[in-house]
Amino acid sequence: MSRTDPHSFFDPDHPLVRRLELFLRPDFPSKTLSGEVLLHFDGASSGPLDLDSDGLRILSAAAQDGRPVHHALGDPDPILGRRLTLDLPPGTEAVRIAFATSPEATGLQWLEPAQTAGGSLPFLFSQCQPHHARSIFPCQDSPRVRVTYRAEITVPEGFTAVMAAAPLGARSGPEGRTFLFEMPQPIPTYLFALAVGRLESREIGPRSRIWAEPETVEAAAFEFAGTESMIAAAEGIFGPYPWDRYDMLVLPPSFPYGGMENPRLTFLTPTLLAGDRSLVAVVVHELAHSWTGNLVTNATMNDFWLNEGFTVWAERRLLEVLKGKEAAALAWALGQRALDRAMERFGPDSPLTRLKTDLWGVDPDAVYSEVPYEKGARFVALLEKTAGRDVFDRFIRDYIGRFRFTSITTEEFLAFLEERLPGLAGQVSAEAWLYRPGLPANAPRFESARMALLLRMASGWGQGERPPAEDLRALNPDETLLFLQNLPRPLPADSLRELDGLLGLSGQGNYEILVEWLTIAAQSDFETAFPKIEEVLSRVGRMKFVRPLFKALSATARTRALARRIFEANRARYHTLTRRVAEAEMAAYPEG
Questions:
Q1: Phi-psi region for residue 512, left (φ > 0), alpha (ψ -120 to 50) or beta?
Q2: Enclosing H/E stretch for 219
Q3: Phi/psi zone of residue 499: left (φ > 0), alpha (ψ -120 to 50 degrees), beta?
Q4: Which has the closest alpha carbon to 518: 547, 478, 557?
Q5: Given pLDDT bands bounded at 50, 70 and 90, which one contains residue 1?
Q6: What pTM was estimated for this model as a whole?
Q7: Is the predicted pLDDT of residue 447 greater than 90, yes or no?
């Protein structure tokens, strides 16, 4: 055996799966998916085949001609799940496996009607990154393996199924409606995505539509009406959009991420529906993944920065085009705050602050952070600054062209960088960025006069120097967020009441601002904000918001008691990933 991925049983010496055919039936009462997957190989094969599985019941396995295939499940591993080993008879071109998922499948979340906007039907959605597709169907669940697929999802009447794939229509039958899909471009299995629920759609552009529950679809269509201009701006930098359509799905609030870049159907949190289009940068980020991440992908989670670092850099290049240099500078400043928090969480000398990581034996969900995003983006920005924008833009297009629809390692990227821009890696001390912890001293700085003013305002507030009320109220959402992020904490109760009165923070529809305000309130033991903190943590499962709120609630015995009560009341509502984040933060609480 020659495993190359720390989070997969995939063996490159075994037959390679190139195409899937999936036939799935969700059962909401039992919270299980059942069905079959037909795995097509890259040629006639025989001998052992190791697949990834996690919590699956394997019912049968047979070759394409019906010959039974011997199969066995290995011992459970807390990170990898269970190895499914098949012994393929000679001449096997495809194998059909019948299976059923566990109700605890980590890649699926089943919502009761009360957890949806409409309250009438249950809801199902998947989240496969980084290695949870194996809990939905047996597969080679490594980013190195890219597959095309066809899928049939049979659901009860009244439900709609959507996938990150091209829809091919639906047919009715005795078991309900069967929705048909085709993914013609090869993807890693972590980009497999489906959702089933009460859904409607609205066209918002010539190649975009938005899906959501009927109660939120109009708000979503308004919020993301500018998507086509984003796609056009991205094409101006990275080349033609490679996935035919860019559709989006707004999920119920328990979705653990801000967005997930599933090709052809980006998944989004409803916390983006601020009502003023102030949070569309998340869509800019997920759209940028269409080139950096989905088209050129990290080979393993050890190289995750290749996905996220390039995409954060690309997001801010797009923001510069769409909103100007000042907006991009503010985004870099907000990102610096997130990076500082991640560095504080791990410690600057932690190997988890390197870009190229070594995650053998480490659960990638447990160490998920902003480091590959923000440190990675600063490394790419440094390359751009040193090479010059025009030169680097040509390099980026060449990079995407060379590696499109493939998955690469950090070392493969470095080799290409040296080939196309000789000496640049040495100029920027790439080795230090990639293989050493912390943030190197040559990290680029992003400054502006407006940003400097906001920092002075925040500093002055902490010293009792109040800026004019009209100046505070004139701040745009990003400016307000940067101001809040740089306030000292804890703050006295009278200062918090004044701040809330001036800016209406407790009534904010922008969750970035609202949660930043509530973290300040929690760290300050501000009892007036406790009901709002409980409301947010009882409704929203986005890890970006859950983590800082539970961390901030460590401040006093009273806030810790509040955190534990909120968690116990909402444990079952949280996605598995969100629940782990909250538990990890509370595990670090002092006694009392």
A1: alpha
A2: helix 217-223
A3: alpha
A4: 547
A5: low
A6: 0.94
A7: no
* 146-155 and 17-27 beta bridge pairing: parallel
Catalytic residue among 36, 286, 315, 585: 286
Burial 525-559 (b: 16+ CB within 10 A, else e): bbeebbebbbebbeebbbbbbbbbbbbbbbbeeeb
Condensed to tens digits (0 to 9), the pLDDT of residues 260-274 reads 999 999 999 999 999
Q: How far apart are CA 161 and CA 169, in angstroms?
A: 11
**Continuous segment of H or E residues that includes residue 227:** helix 227-238
pLDDT tens readout for residues 281-334:
999 999 999 999 999 999 999 999 999 999 999 999 999 999 999 999 999 999
Q: Whole-angstrom Cα distance, residue 62 to residue 187?
A: 25
Two structure tokens written together for 209: 């539509």
In eight-state DSSP terms, residue 142 is: S
The closest alpha carbon to 355, from 437, 443, 288, belongs to: 437
Q: Identify the bridge partners of residue 34 per DSSP, sorted by sequence position.
A: 25, 100
Instruction: State the catalytic residue, choosing from 373, 399, 511, 574.
Output: 373
Active site residue 286: yes
Sole residue written with tokens 């904010």: 508
CA distances from 138 to 11, 149, 196, 392, 431 (A): 14, 14, 21, 41, 37
Kindly state the tokens that stand for 387: 């090479």
- Is residue 344 flagged as an active site residue? no
- Across the range 420-427, mean pLDDT stands at 98
